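Thread: "does anyone have the structure for this chain?"

Original post by V.I.:
We have the sequence but no experimental structure in hand. Need at least a predicted one for the grant figures.
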Amino acid sequence: MLLVKLDLSYLDEVVLLETPKGFVLFNIKRKILNAPKNVWSWFAHRATAEHVSFLVDYIKVDDKSVVWRSDGPGKELSEWIWRYCRNEKELIVGDEKLKDVIKSNMKRVMLFDNNYTAKELFLNEGLKESISKFGINVPTEAINAAFIGNAGSLHRCHVLVYHLGKDLREACDKLVPGIGGMIEDNLLYAKVMAKILIPKLVQDWEFSMSFPPDMVLKLQKAAAAADDVRKQIDYYTMYRTIRRCLIDLERLPQLKTKLLQRLKAYADRCSKQQELQITGKRYHTDVGGVAETSRGAAEDSPHASSEGYKKARPDEV
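Reply from O.Q.:
Generated one for you, tokens below.
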């Protein structure tokens, strides 16, 4: 293989995966590895997967037995891997066995944390751990593409709602101090900030529609004290920021509820199917037991032959 020295500066983290006829290298953005248990959610949908990853190269390997040998992964694959993993570029390997081969025989290659494999990152327990927080539990064999897609959407909704509120509070608490600690609900907080900083956004909403009189008085004082702040802020940037928060903080919780209902309904169906399977097994066991008992009872009857009696109770003969 002719080795051409490549500019690897465009690569973040390189992932090696096996294909039916060879191996493929993908690049994934380093930022998503900051939370390894959430990596799966980036690949739940094609759009988000394409946002954080791209194909780097593919190699055909005719004899894969060489790859898995104790002295593997073979000259051809080794040179190909090294081509993209120079300059301390970390490699994430598809599975544990291949990772051990590369770790033993390609010591110059840096493996990601020396712990995670691609299988653990993309198909790890992070998915089940994430959905279990919402009270959803399904057996591994019941997890299909549709379930992963819905679970990924639920996870993204949950994260976005959290960060929308957090980011808005960080931006506005500096401008209107003392309000954030009094309002726990993020949507209400966004409405209050809109009323104080960009009144045009919530012309049909008043403090008195959501707060008691004493709280209304505090908010009115805060609004009156924010006259200078309104003149200093970048109006259009703040307008877009608060408007986006208002829209998303109303939309995303509703979407989150629908996704939860959908996933819980699927989990319930899986649970019922399992119960039916268990009941079916018990039924067949019970039927077999009843048949055996009936046969024994027949042999114990006065009309049973002595030969049958002997066969039924060999220990007593």
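V.I.: this helps a lot. Residues 235-300 form the longest helix (66 residues).
O.Q.: and The first strand starts at residue 13 and ends at 19.
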